[in-house]
Fold these 2 entries.
Entry 1:
Amino acid sequence: MLVLFIVLSAVLISLLIWQKIKYRALEKDIAYISSRLESLSLTSENGFLLLPTNCNAVKELGASINRLLQDFYTDKADFKKSQKAMAQVLTNISHDIRTPLTVLKGNSEMLFSKAKESSLPESFQAMAKKIDQKADQLTATINDYFTMSKIASGDLILNLQKENISQICHETVLDYYDLLEEQQFEVNIQIPSVPVFADTDKEALQRILKKLIDNAIRHGGAGKYMGLRLTTSEDSVKIQIEDHGKGMSPQQQKQIFARNYTTVGKSSGSGLGLAIAKSLARQIGGEIQVHSIPDEKTVFSVILKS
């Protein structure tokens, strides 16, 4: 009887050890699957699961996951192709519209100028002014879509090199001098007296700053304040555009760089301005951040590598 008990105990212990080994092997396989899927989600590689396992259930699970991954990679490739094709179509359409729009804008300016000089009724002059303003809005919208489509299709060519950021800031703000003075803005410009250099594309950076200044004037104009600060650190250059308008809620700050998103009515613009600024900043190796306190201030920060 004792011998039988010892034999049964030995068998049970062996089974327990064997089950423990299988459990450890299963744990290892699951940990590998989890780690591999996390790795694939963080990278752009089209990888698969390679499971050297003896467990048929795990093999079937791995095969099913690989089939799903293959379908995902195929759909992703098709999506990128269609996205690029649509961006190219939008680029072509925008380009085709710009030529007749230039003619339209020239005629609207002439009409408005003649209306002001003549003794026509005020209602006619107001109509001519409205036509000219709408032509300006349409031109700005088409230019935004043209720029956005070029960025999306990869057709935007940039020339990254060391640039004098101080000078670019001065030149950009100078373009707004008359408008800011006319609208009686308090302007606070803080730019170091010595040149500040960073790697960037001059035209792209000017576009970014103009989009942010336009935004400060249009959406923060109630505060009648526009500030520009240029500061440096050991490895970066920061340009901050500040306004004292109504500001944004935390939720709006999360959405503000999305395409076609605007905090006011659609009639005020295309909603592409900040999306373009964000995309251009990424193209030149920088980034844009926003910090806003409702009814106090909004600060957009452009950060470049020095």
Entry 2:
Amino acid sequence: MQSIKIMTDSASDLPNEVAKQLGIDVIPNPIAVDGRGYLEGVDFTPAEFYDILANAKEIPTTSQISPITYCERYYEAFQRGYTDIILVGISSNASATYLRSIDAVKLFFDNCPQAQGKINIHIIDSKTFSLGYGFPVMKAAYMARQGKSVEEITATIKDWLERLEIYFTAFSFEYIKKSGRISCASAIVGEALGIRPLIQIKNGEMKIIAKPRGNKAVMQKMAQILSENIDPKSPYLMLTGTQEGAKEDMQKMIYSMTEKEPVFVSDVGCSVCINSGPKMIGIGFMGKNQ
């Protein structure tokens, strides 16, 4: 009998209560703010981080999770009798955390040789961000509780990740400018014209695909893209921040085109928020043309 432990990192933006309910081990990402260290999801909630971000003198930075931290989680799972670990983490294109989780496998077995042949560690590079991999992690936890095999669970995760499309926008250029994603001059012009960059994350790549003018226009464009590209059987997810009314407006627009409601809505966490700012909204779904 397989006994499977599901793991992820806090950049998955899974609420702590959801992770606890499903038995998901969420490893916190280190965050540095003006020289002070924090652990995401441990030292603050998303809402509390928005206040920290607003008062920070410099843009906060995220750090990779150390191999030792991963090793400790692997050892804990082994001690508790699990036969398999499935770990899904933030995109390797954005963080060295993925490589550190792999380094930790050798470190674990070197220091715990008695675990050889008794526990298997399966690591999946999500090639994406936030709920883009947080959602399949939740689904994996449900499947593990239903007694599904490692092979079935990993196949389901990979299918979702391979077909995933994410779109998000920021309602302010403040943090995109500070993060260096665009030049100061472009930010000034964009703010003056009311431009809202529409950013796509697909197949591990991030790019601006449109620049609508105005909050309503960018959300309408997102809703249109979803309605035209979503697999009819796919749910959709929503990531929200502090922009007043954006969540409700986005849901209404999508429902008017598809009659779909989001299956899961979560607050934007540090990894996305540092670059987009808290005034943002995002959606994710499985594309039909892949």
